Fold this protein.
Amino acid sequence: MMFVSHFLFGILSGYFACNFLNCDNTFLFVSIAAVASSFPDIDHVSSKISRKLPPFAIVSHSLFAHRGFIHSLFPPLLLYFMIFKIDSAIAAAVLVGYISHLLLDATTTRGIRFFYPLPFKIKGFIRTNSFAEKIVTMLLLIVIITIVVMTLFIK
Ligand SMILES: [Zn+2]
């Protein structure tokens, strides 16, 4: 999936998680989740995050295959427990954003091995950057705009 799709789904997941968890600062929670939603593609050479952080990208490309360990449930859980000691809300936002990326990638034909290196894989029918993905991106955008409009104007 493309950066934009992950970003939008990160925003949406952050919003719902924040409501569910009754978090104090919706804007902060959603922002962190949106940023964290791009973390997993650090294992992909040409992703946006790799171009922003070349040193990390070089290390992660040489250590991890694309959609390998970095695209499993282990890194977000590890991050969660590491950040939890500092701030539990930030830890939750990172967890939600990161996992939202994995869930969205699981809808693609390449799929996701959530428990990498175990072979168990979940996959869907959407090809990256295809027409189907653009439809998904549009739908995410429409839902987000609807939520923003409703929270701003309907009280
Ligand atoms: Zn990905």
